[in-house]
Design a protein that fits this description.
- By secondary structure, the chain is mainly alpha-helical.
- Strand 1 and strand 2 form a beta hairpin.
- It has one domain: Growth Hormone, Chain: A (Up-down Bundle), CATH 1.20.1250.20.
- The protein is built from 23 helices and two strands.
- It starts with 21 loop residues before the first helix and ends in a 10-residue tail after the last helix.
Length: 444
């Protein structure tokens, strides 16, 4: 996909990952579960912070606003940094910021107020923005362009493993260890009793973040001492204006950024508010509802590998369209169907979402060459969808009851009309790229 520097060994087009790049590929792929962990240990914190600090669903969802806002704010600076230096340098900066943000949970828990945690999440995801802006195009470049989408899907297949671990940690080491007192019960407590309980619960929340910080230090050292391939580093000029103009004229790229915005919004809403759906619609406990989130992630992981295999035979755009239509249908089921069947539909959307991020990414950057370093920034900035959409859904859930098409629905079910709209946009992008002759099925 990109022109390699003169000292870079040639890569064969017959393999998804050329033999001489196996070690760099493995090390960079290790980053994918690390940011998956951060994403999915954080999603249940929307509900946890709302209860611990006695906030509304909208206020609690500001966790996601800060978390995904960091992706948006740092993506373009990260791309400029990578363009000026290297993918490896971007990865190291990302790991450092990720670890620093995680360690900020220590003073946040000691202060026992909400805003320091938002700062910690924002800092942490500035690091994740560096990692994703570096790692995704780096993986695309490690081999032939014909196999680039499959290669990225392969690397991304390890992302949900980190996500699943994050969900398990959130369930067993956070939600299960928080005091069960509700926000109403906490509001009736004496000030000193409430302060002690809040400090205890916030200490529970901070522990996994401290643990991941130590893991990040180890990975930082491993990558720092390993020689990585270089791509396009003979030309370190930023060339921002012409690059942005070329990308702006690339309809497939621009529409890909839009599709990615709506995909990330759909994913974060479905995974964040599955706990609300289970607790408010079905009377489950938070721990029980998080269990269904974990089932959704197992489905996501399994589907990712299956879909990566299918890309050998099917157009990326065509498969993207089919899965988006399936996701929309299941989301409609979560809105219209009462009881456990509605929850099962919501869980099932994960099978349809599994392919979307890396496939949209690969389609959008196909053929852009060295412009991918800045082009990646636009696709990472599109993660803003995960910042904007959850607070909107949280605000709908706070309404308790919503009228749709002349019928009255519980607000938690009606709120999933937002992911439904997102899937419709993704399906349209899949259809448009499926008939684009420049987008061909991935080859072996």
């Amino acid at each position: 996909m990109e022109t390699s520097s003169s000292n870079q060994p040639s890569t064969g087009s017959s393999r998804v990952v050329p033999a001489q790049l196996i070690l760099p590929f493995v090390l960079v792929t290790l980053l994918f579960p690390l940011w998956g962990f951060a994403n999915d240990v954080t999603n249940p914190m929307v509900k946890a912070f709302s209860r611990i600090l006695q906030m509304s669903n909208f206020q609690g969802s500001l966790v996601q606003f800060a978390f995904y806002g960091g992706y948006f704010a740092m993506a373009f600076p990260a791309a400029l940094f990578i363009k000026r230096y290297s993918y490896k340098a971007g990865i190291l900066v990302g790991l450092g910021l990720y670890a620093f943000g995680a360690l900020l949970f220590i003073p946040g828990s000691m202060m026992a107020v909400f805003w320091p945690f938002l700062v910690a999440y924002f800092t942490l995801t500035c690091g994740l923005s560096f990692l994703e802006t570096s790692a995704n195009p780096f993986i695309l470049a490690m081999g032939s362009e014909e196999t680039s989408t499959r290669r990225l899907n392969l690397a991304q297949s390890f992302n949900p493993m980190g996500s699943l671990l994050g969900m398990f940690i959130a369930q067993q080491f956070i939600l299960a260890r928080l005091d069960p007192a509700t926000a109403t019960e906490r509001g009736a407590m004496a000030a000193d009793q409430l302060a002690a309980l809040t400090a205890q619960d916030l200490a529970v929340i901070r522990t996994p973040y401290i643990g991941i910080a130590f893991v990040l230090v180890v990975v930082f050292i491993a990558i720092a001492v390993t020689r990585m391939p270089s791509y396009g580093e003979d030309d370190r000029s930023l060339d921002v204006g012409p690059t942005l103009r070329r990308l702006g004229r690339n309809k497939r790229y621009v529409e890909g950024v839009v599709a990615q915005f709506f995909y990330v919004g759909a994913q974060i809403m479905c995974w964040t508010f599955i706990i609300h759906y289970g607790t408010m619609e079905l009377g489950l406990t938070e721990v029980e509802a998080q269990g269904y989130n974990m089932v959704a992630m197992v489905i996501f992981v399994t589907s990712r590998f299956i879909c990566t295999f299918l890309l050998k035979y099917v157009s990326p755009g065509g498969l993207l369209m089919a899965l988006a239509l399936g996701g929309g249908g299941l989301t409609l089921g979560a809105i219209l169907i009462q009881g456990m069947m509605g929850l099962y539909c919501l869980v099932g959307t994960s099978a349809c979402m599994s392919l979307m991020f890396p496939t949209i990414y690969g389609i959008a950057l196909k053929g852009v060459g060295e412009d991918a370093k800045l082009g990646a920034a636009g696709l990472i900035m599109a993660i803003l969808g995960g910042s904007v959409m959850p607070p909107l859904q949280g605000a709908i859930i706070d309404l308790e009851t919503v009228g749709l098409a002349g019928l009255s629905f519980p607000a938690v079910r009606a709120s999933f009309v937002l992911p439904l709209i997102c899937f419709a946009v993704i399906a349209l992008y899949g259809r448009r790229t499926a008939v684009d002759r420049d987008v061909t099925p991935a080859e072996t």
